[in-house]
Write a structure and sequence with these properties.
By secondary structure, the chain is α/β, with parallel strands linked by helices. It is built from six helices and four strands, in the order βααβαββααα.
C-alpha cells in the first residue's frame, strides 16, 4: 500500500519510529488491508535541499516547502482509477521547524502532512474556500482517529 523511503537520516534521528508514523497516517486514509491490494503511493522523506529542487523544477518556487504531492498520471490503456496514486515528498527541516513553531510533536505534524498529501493524491484540494473547508474537515476526522489534536486550531484557541 505505502512504500516509505527515508533519504534524509535526520528523520530517523528525530523519530526512530518514522516508518510506523507514516504508515499509521497512510492507513488512516487508505485503510490497513484493502481488498485486492488497494491504492498505493510512495512517501519520500527528504531534506530541505531536495524538496527545494523539486519545488523549483515543478512549481517554479525556489524554496523548500513542507510537503509536495505528485499525482500519478494514468498510463495509456490503464483505467483512470489505477491503484497507484503517486508520490508524496516531505522536507525534514521545514517540517521540524513548523512543528516547533506550532508547539506540536513532530510525529503529529508528520501524520498531518502525510494525510494532507494523500488527500491531494485522491483529488482533494484547497484552492477555493469550500474545498479547503471540506479537506480540513476530513483531515481533522482522520487525525482524531489517530488521537491527534486539530492541527488548524490556533494557539490562541488553546490559551486558558
Amino acid at each position: 500500500m505505502i512504500e516509505i523511503q527515508v533519504e534524509d537520516p535526520a528523520w530517523r534521528e528525530a523519530l526512530p519510529d518514522v516508518e510506523a508514523v507514516v504508515r499509521g497516517a497512510a492507513e488512516a486514509v487508505l485503510g490497513a488491508d484493502p481488498p485486492g491490494g488497494g491504492e498505493r503511493a510512495t512517501v519520500l522523506l527528504e531534506g530541505d535541499a531536495a524538496v527545494r529542487d523539486l519545488n523549483a523544477r515543478f512549481r517554479d518556487r525556489d524554496a523548500p516547502t513542507n510537503v509536495l504531492s505528485f499525482p500519478a498520471a494514468a498510463l495509456p490503456g490503464e483505467p483512470e482509477t489505477a491503484p497507484y496514486l503517486g508520490d508524496i515528498i516531505l522536507a525534514f527541516g521545514v517540517c521540524a521547524r513548523e512543528a516547533g513553531e506550532q508547539g506540536k510533536p513532530l510525529a503529529h505534524h508528520l501524520s498531518h502532512l502525510v494525510i494532507h498529501g494523500l488527500l491531494h493524491l485522491l483529488g482533494h484540494d484547497h484552492q477555493e474556500d469550500e474545498e479547503a473547508e471540506a479537506m480540513e474537515a476530513r483531515e481533522r476526522t482522520l487525525l482524531a482517529g489517530l488521537g491527534i489534536d486539530d492541527p488548524y486550531r490556533s494557539i490562541v484557541d488553546t490559551a486558558p
